[in-house]
Design goal:
Layout (H helix, E strand, L loop, with lengths): L4 E5 L4 H12 L3 E6 L5 E2 L5 H15 L5 E4 L8 H22 L6 E5 L10 H8 L3 H13 L6 H17 L11 E6 L5 H8 L2 H10 L10 H11 L11 E4 L3 H5 L2
Parallel strand pairs: 1-2, 1-4, 2-3, 4-5, 5-6, 6-7
Helix pairs in contact: 1-9, 2-3, 3-5, 3-6, 4-5, 4-6
The structure holds nicotinamide-adenine-dinucleotide (NAD).
Length: 256
């Protein structure tokens, strides 16, 4: 069996770095992509960066990849969050699909978030699903302006989930033999999570109360990395369109 080649976005830190390391340790060729400190440098929040990702990955891979792990994302109360988390992720998946088709066992996965089940702004989600990036950015800006900036992040991930569930079973993906899934982590212990909310006890307690994780808060990054790696492995030949909650039991707690 030949060595598999994987593309990981957001590979410079956190979940992306851990996943790239996990795949490389198992013997795969990993093309690490990020806006900084990576083999392929591309800003996925803007059209030129998205085009650069596709062309650079084509060049360094020789025209065939076996898996895409789309991790790059931010949690800022800003329109940038929809540009990167929704439109950047779609561009990653769609832009690299022609290279995946060249594989005999192609797979793709995106990173969502448990927070998508907690809250969302209908205008942002609707504009994303209409694939209208400027309207989605404007709706996000309006939410920020109204003092509801925290809704932008879960909205970007809910839109991603909804797009993915229908795209996965359509002709471009399932029809082309490419399983496409999402992993929705609960709160896990990355440097960014620590810096943005875990370090402040009051904020951390509030998040832990909103997203109860009976298996532990925060969870380990390695648990997300190994699940992502499995979804793009040759072994995952029959699961597609799923949102896999790797959240220490938060989704089960909130939805039962
Ligand atoms: N850490 C958590 O608790 C948690 C929970 C749920 C979901 N997530 C999701 O997991 C993903 C990774 O989060 P993380 O905690 O590892 O954070 P992180 O900040 O360590 O990783 C994000 C990566 O994306 C890169 N990036 C940022 N802007 C970019 C751009 N414009 N173009 C390309 N790359 C860019 C960053 O450089 C970074 O390497 C995100 O999509 C996040 O929403 C994280």
């Amino acid at each position: 069996m030949s060595e598999r080649t994987y593309v990981v976005t957001g590979a410079a830190s956190g979940i992306g770095a851990a996943t790239a390391d996990h795949l490389a340790a198992a013997g795969a060729r990993v093309i690490r992509c990020d806006v900084r400190a990576a083999e392929v440098i591309a800003d996925l929040a803007v059209p030129e960066g998205r085009e650069r990702l596709a062309s650079q990955v084509r060049a360094v891979s020789g025209g065939r990849i076996d898996g895409v792990v789309a991790v790059a994302g931010v949690g800022l109360p800003s329109p940038l969050t929809v540009r990167l988390n929704f439109f950047g992720t779609l561009a990653t998946l769609e832009g690299l699909r022609p290279l995946l088709i060249e594989s005999d066992r192609p797979r793709a996965v995106a990173v969502s978030s448990l927070s998508a089940i907690v809250a969302a702004d209908e205008r942002i989600v609707k504009a994303c699903l209409a694939l209208d990036e400027e309207a989605a950015a404007a709706a996000a800006a309006a939410a920020v302006e109204a003092g509801r900036g925290r809704i932008v992040y879960p909205s970007s991930k809910l839109a991603l989930n909804q797009w993915l569930r229908s795209a996965a079973v359509a002709s471009d993906w399932a029809g082309a033999g490419i399983p496409l899934n999402a992993v929705a982590p609960g709160v896990v212990d990355t440097e960014t999570a620590r810096r943005t909310f875990l370090a402040d006890p009051a904020t951390s307690d509030l998040v832990a109360a909103t997203m109860p994780q009976p298996l532990g808060f925060p969870g380990p990054v390695s648990a997300i990395a190994s699940l992502l790696a499995w979804t793009v492995s040759a072994g995952n030949s029959f699961m597609t369109g799923q949102i896999l909650y790797a959240d220490g039991g938060a989704e089960a707690t909130l939805n039962s």
